[in-house]
Amino acid sequence: MATYVVLSRFSPEAFRDPRDFKKLADTVSSKIRSECPGIRWKESFATLGRFDVVDVVESDDPKQIEKAAMIIRAYGHSSTETLAATPWKEFLSSL
């Protein structure tokens, strides 16, 4: 399975009260689970930098990753950047 890193940044209009974020996150997660069954979520991190969330996911189908990113954008009111990721040891062995 290929690994991807999805970087997300919330729109200022995404939510007014931080407590509302839990509902937003549940909506996005449910939508991705139901519409992108080929994605395995490895980990999610809240970050204090240019991006608000870093998700690490796996899938054999890049179209599923594209769809998940669009769901995050539409339902999560976020901008995203998606990166294909190669485990470091695999990368070094390919050189």
The CATH superfamily bears the name: Dimeric alpha+beta barrel
Report on the biggest sheet: 4 strands, antiparallel
Radius of gyration, whole Å: 14 Å
How many domains? The number is 1
Order of helices and strands: EHEEHEH
**Contiguous runs where pLDDT drops below 50 for at least 5 residues:** none
Average residue pLDDT: 94
Relative helix content? 25-40%
Number of helices: 3
Please give the alpha-carbon distance between the first and last residues.
20 Å
| Overall geometry | globular
CATH topology category name: Alpha-Beta Plaits
Strand order of the largest sheet: 2-3-1-4
What percent strand? 25-35%
Instruction: Please count the beta strands (DSSP E, at least 2 residues each).
Output: 4
Classify the secondary structure makeup into a structural class: alpha+beta
Task: State the CATH architecture.
Answer: 2-Layer Sandwich
The CATH class assignment is Alpha Beta
Verbal overview:
The protein has three helices and four strands. With 95 residues, it is an alpha+beta fold. It has a four-stranded antiparallel beta sheet with strand order 2-3-1-4, with helices on one face. Strand 2 (40-46) and strand 3 (53-59) form a beta hairpin. Helix 1 (20-35) runs antiparallel to helix 2 (62-76). The chain is globular.
Please write out the topology.
Layout: E1 2-10, H1 20-35, E2 40-46, E3 53-59, H2 62-76, E4 78-85, H3 88-93
Antiparallel strand pairs: 1-3, 1-4, 2-3
Helix pairs in contact: 1-2
Key phrases:
single chain; 95 residues; alpha+beta; Alpha-Beta Plaits; 4-stranded antiparallel sheet; 33% strand
